[in-house]
Amino acid sequence: WRQRPPAGKENTGATRRALAQSVKALKPNHCLSHMLLSIDPGLLEEDVGGETLSALQATQSSCVVEEQAVGRSVTWRRRRVQPGAGGEHTSEDWVEEPHVLVHVPLEGFLSMVHTYSQEVRGADTEGQVTLQSFSQSILDRSAGRIPALVVMGLEQYFRTQRKRLVTEQGGDRPMRRKQKSRVRVSRVDVEVALVHLQLTTGVQVQFLETWKEFADHINRFTKAVAETPFKRGREKADISFYMENQGSREVKVDRSGKGLLQVWSRQIQQFNRVSADMANAIISVYPSPWLLNQAYQECSSERERQRLLAAIPVRRGEGVTSSTRKIGPQLSKRVYLQMTSTDPNLSLEIHDSLHVETCDRGDGGP
């Protein structure tokens, strides 16, 4: 028989399993199955609404049709797994994602662009809706979600306008079926309105032509929303170091500290115009950032700190073709500033310009 582990260890194991499940749920291969799309019924009123819904339901994510705060929109929720009290069980809840995708009918979009173009020309547009006021209303109604707008058929509209213009200029006015009344806007009007929209609200507009493209766009958007936490976590947790001729292979550091020297070398190589030979020359004298900082503290002046590394020799090549140069004052100063500056806006390249010619000669002089 096996002795049952203490209750505290069982709880710890359950907590670890729950945490592992929550981390796994964020990974690209699994995150989509934890997403729920909420689709406003207004999006399904179109002739091909059923086909759009079928295309969305064929993905890994779940779909539900429910009325949204913003009509003709899609929002997202994520299933979150959390360890329960004492680690005895796990709990699940749904977290709202801060995004809303809104379909704007072409007629409404053209009207809003036309209103803004009239406003720019000085006309009285009080009480009328522009893209900026429409987007602001979405922000007010969607609890801080970031809106993204989708417009269908704009290119077809411009093609129709072009054909109509050619017909009118030719004097040929064939009988046509009565069409819906449309305001006339140009591509320039649209571009000006979009620039104003992005500058004032930051809202982006995507132009599509078919409902299949619309369904594909929602699927891509869903994938991007689902993978966002994983990508942000990776960016915060890791700093990618790359070494010449080694591609993007990661440096593994074990518990004994093996691998830290290579990480330190790669960190130095993040500077512009710094080769592996130059980085290895520095770490041969100062094998860790801590030792380099200690050396800076022992210097008696700012000038001495900036030139601390300048005289370190750098050997390039082997045999009769080998050559030797020095680190030089430029790189020495850049490393010093990077290691000691507390200014997050400091540009090391500005300081480089004072010594570029000296460094290129490689004489290490002032």
Rg from alpha-carbon coordinates? 31 Å
Task: Write down the overall mean pLDDT.
Answer: 79
- Total count of helical runs of at least 4 residues: 14
N-to-C SSE string, H for helix and E for strand: HEHEEEHHEHHEHHHHHEEHHH
Strand tally is 8
Provide a quick synopsis of the model.
The chain is α/β, with parallel strands linked by helices and 366 residues long. The protein has helices at 7-24, 49-57, 106-120, 131-141, 154-169, 187-201, 211-237, 260-268, 276-285, 289-298, 302-306, 328-340, 348-352, 356-361; strands at 35-39, 62-65, 73-83, 90-104, 146-152, 204-208, 313-316, 323-326. Strand 7 (313-316) and strand 8 (323-326) form a beta hairpin.
Task: List its salient traits.
366 residues, alpha/beta, Rossmann fold, 2 domains, two-stranded antiparallel ribbon, 46% helix, 15% strand
What can you tell me about this protein's structure?
With 366 residues, the chain is α/β, with parallel strands linked by helices. The protein folds into two domains: 13-82 and 92-164 and 184-236, Rossmann fold (3-Layer(aba) Sandwich); 260-340, Crossover junction endonuclease EME1, DNA-binding domain (DNA polymerase, domain 1), CATH 1.10.150. Helices cover 46% and strands 15% of the residues. It is built from 14 helices and eight strands. The chain has helices at 7-24, 49-57, 106-120, 131-141, 154-169, 187-201, 211-237, 260-268, 276-285, 289-298, 302-306, 328-340, 348-352, 356-361, and strands at residues 35-39, 62-65, 73-83, 90-104, 146-152, 204-208, 313-316, 323-326. A six-stranded mixed sheet has the order 2-1-3-4-5-6, sandwiched between helices. Strand 3 (73-83) and strand 4 (90-104) form a beta hairpin. Residues 238-248 and 353-366 have low confidence and may be disordered. One of its GO terms (molecular function) is DNA binding.
